[in-house]
Amino acid sequence: LRVRRLEKCFLVIEEIIEMNEEIKKIIQYKHNFLNYHKNTSNPEIQEMIEYIKKVDRFGMINSPLEQKYTNCNVECYYDMQCEMPYLYEGNKKLYFPHGYDEKRVKNLYSCLKREQDLQSPHRYIDEEDLKIIKEQRALGRKCICLDLGAMEGMFSLSLVEEVDELHLFECESEWSDALKQTFEQLGGRVVNKFVGEHTFDEYINIDDYLKDLDLHNVFLIVKMDIEGYERFALKGMKKTLDSVADYLLFVCAYHRQDDEAVIRDMFKKHKIRNTKGYFCFYVAEDYDVPYVRRCVLKVQKN
């Protein structure tokens, strides 16, 4: 019994040491960020500096937004038939994986709402994007949405009434199962695969996925949040992007240090916008100067 108690004590001590090391690292990143940008003229970064000094913290989102949705008051339900928890996003059921309890669902939902807040650097759809989509529909184009790295599917859920087809790609089985429940009655197709440059084993590229589809009158919407593999997935959809009438891409550009530069170079002949604000993505292994990263690049063909 004494040995077991000692083992537990050692485990707790190890956890405390690891936690302290992580705190030290974040403090060092805060110091590096403030020192590097101390003479900046960038108003977005100036706002971040003011907030960091005010609250004496350093996180991925350094603005009052980080404290928003901390007490997200939402009802959570349980579907006995599929044995999954869900809540309502608008008037649609949004399912979560097997085994998620109410607290976990609510905490995750709060993070998702914060991520897609109008002031968030990770926000995908804005009024200009909706205007572009409606203009394409008015031209008689077939609107197809590909949600790469769909996870819970909120991006696709927001476009259910705006597009003709929804294709959701999610490599995590627990989330692909939840997506199937969410989109069962909404017409979305869920694909439990990784999206990459080539097709093999559990990977698929978009050129192969859409190879049998007539794309000449298609307006393609693609959202990509696939943990730093966006550049490879883009290479695997080159034929598709060349073939469609027009497209609007929402590409996450913060997982790798050079993501933004690489993606901008890939689409240098096209119109590119970025979301307002930055992430300080200190959880990345290559997090370094300049300590800020744009979250989402929006690329339009024409």
In short:
Helices cover 37% and strands 19% of the residues.
Oligomer: single chain
Given as residue ranges, the uncertain stretches (5+ residues, pLDDT < 50) are none
Shape: globular
Mean pLDDT: 93
The number of strands is 12
**Rg over CA atoms:** 21 Å
Strand percentage, roughly?
15-25%
H/E element string? HHEEEHHEHEHEEEHEHHEHEE
List the helices and strands and how they pair.
Blueprint: H1 2-36, H2 43-55, E1 77-79, E2 84-89, E3 92-95, H3 102-115, H4 127-138, E4 142-148, H5 154-157, E5 165-169, H6 173-183, E6 188-191, E7 194-195, E8 203-204, H7 206-209, E9 218-224, H8 230-235, H9 238-243, E10 246-252, H10 259-266, E11 271-274, E12 296-300
Parallel strand pairs: 4-5, 4-9, 5-6, 7-8, 9-10
Antiparallel strand pairs: 1-2, 2-3, 10-12, 11-12
Attribute tags:
12 strands, 302 residues, globular, alpha/beta, seven-stranded mixed sheet, three-stranded antiparallel sheet
Describe what this molecule looks like in 3D:
By secondary structure, this protein is an alpha/beta fold. 37% of the residues lie in helices and 19% in strands. The protein contains ten helices and twelve strands. The protein has helices spanning 2-36, 43-55, 102-115, 127-138, 154-157, 173-183, 206-209, 230-235, 238-243, 259-266, and strands at residues 77-79, 84-89, 92-95, 142-148, 165-169, 188-191, 194-195, 203-204, 218-224, 246-252, 271-274, 296-300. Strands 6-5-4-9-10-12-11 form a seven-stranded mixed beta sheet, sandwiched between helices. A three-stranded antiparallel beta sheet has the order 1-2-3. Helix 6 (173-183) links the parallel strand 5 (165-169) and strand 6 (188-191). The chain is globular, with a radius of gyration of 21 Å. The relative contact order is 0.12. The model has no long low-confidence stretch (mean pLDDT 93).
